[in-house]
Write a structure and sequence with these properties.
Elements (H helix, E strand, L loop, with lengths): L2 H5 L4 E6 L3 H10 L8 E6 L7 H9 L4 E6 L10 H18 L7 E5 L5 H18 L13
Parallel strand pairs: 1-2, 1-3, 3-4
Length: 146
Amino acid sequence: MNETNEKFEPEIVAFCCHYCAYGAADLAGSMRLNYPANVKIVKLPCTGKVDILYLLKAFEDGADGVYVAGCLEGNCHFTDGNIKAKRRVARAKKLLDEIGLDGTRLEMYNMSASMGPRFAEVAREMTEKIKALGPSPLRKNTTLAI
């Protein structure tokens, strides 16, 4: 990591399932677990509702990193929404690679509502990963408005 990246604070968007990942985020807050404040949460009824366009739009609007956090595989409240989201994230990662934005800036995570510590860990993990990659080439000089 170079000196520029040490001062860089990435903007990260987390698309979270209402039932599991959002519950885990809420639990992390209730447990007073520290995780980076630069993670902006977008609550979805199910990660199956996340569209590739939403993921790409987050980058276009200045996000340095994006992740989708849904229910544990096999435990989706809407049967297979998280499986659909996983496929969409994989396709979006390929698109990001093709346009030169680096598909590793996008990830998919699965967790249950009782995994508050895991939510905080993922937020820290993504922040460190994006810090190492540096700012997105699409980053605007303004704060991300989510």
